[in-house]
Amino acid sequence: MAKLTIAFAKGRMQTEALALMERAGIGMSEDARNSRRLAVEDESGSYRFIFVKPSDVPVYVEHGTADCGIVGRDVLMESNADLLQPLDLRISCCRIAVAACAGAIPSELGALRVATKYPRIAAAHFGARGIPVEIIELAGSVELAPVLGLADAIVDVVETGRTLSENGLDIVEVIANSTGRLVVNRASYQLEAEAVSRLINALKGVLKEDESL
Ligand code: PRP
């Protein structure tokens, strides 16, 4: 049987993604779970799991280094990768939103300064509305930017809303909802059709169980 490589987004989605896999009967040994190894086999030896930065998941899958990946829609929207997206895994539900300091009045002078980890999503969003923006790309802790005057607004992921509220920011507009997705390399989908559909069906089985709860 072909061994599939699955790329997992490290961080907030990892625990939920691995729990879903476990329920689908594709689990890691305790030794692998507790290790810091970035590439491990599942217990059956049918899958190789690799753990990478979320924005690198589409890169590994598009290049075919990984056959499949589990990553958020936010990351996929930001990426230009050409991937198949056969399954919404309904994990790590969040929103991609524009937020600003509570009560802030947008400046009428010049372009709106928007801080974000998602420059493409932000540019497309404001571009579609004809609003001129200066995108300030940050790697994290984006909520700090309007508070300290680096930006007028942010485009970021909101999950519980705690980070926004504890930093005095409000949602101005929701751009899109995001959940974890299974993505598949186009060639693997054909060449490893049997193994890929086994994985998809196993995950679908778990999603069905949740539906019937
Ligand atoms: C994400 C996001 C927000 C926060 C939202 O950041 O960028 O900062 O989580 O979650 P909440 O609505 O539940 O508070 P992450 O934890 O990935 O870290 P980062 O800011 O360093 O990117």
Let me know the average pLDDT.
95
Q: Which parts are unreliable, with pLDDT below 50 for 5 consecutive residues or more?
A: none
State the major sheet: 6 strands, mixed
> What is the CATH superfamily of the largest domain?
Periplasmic binding protein-like II
H/E order of the elements?
A: EHHEEHEHEEEHEHEHEEHH
Number of domains: 2
CATH architecture of the largest domain: 3-Layer(aba) Sandwich
Q: Note the overall shape.
A: elongated
CATH topology title of the largest domain: D-Maltodextrin-Binding Protein, domain 2
The CATH top-level class label of the largest domain: Alpha Beta
Topology record:
Elements: E1 4-9, H1 14-23, H2 30-34, E2 39-41, E3 47-52, H3 57-62, E4 68-72, H4 73-78, E5 84-88, E6 94-101, E7 112-116, H5 119-128, E8 133-137, H6 144-147, E9 153-158, H7 162-166, E10 169-178, E11 180-184, H8 186-191, H9 193-211
Parallel strand pairs: 1-3, 1-4, 7-8, 7-9
Antiparallel strand pairs: 2-3, 4-11, 5-11, 6-9, 6-10
Bound molecules: 1-O-pyrophosphono-5-O-phosphono-alpha-D-ribofuranose.
The site of 1-O-pyrophosphono-5-O-phosphono-alpha-D-ribofuranose has 13 residues, from strand 9 and helix 7.
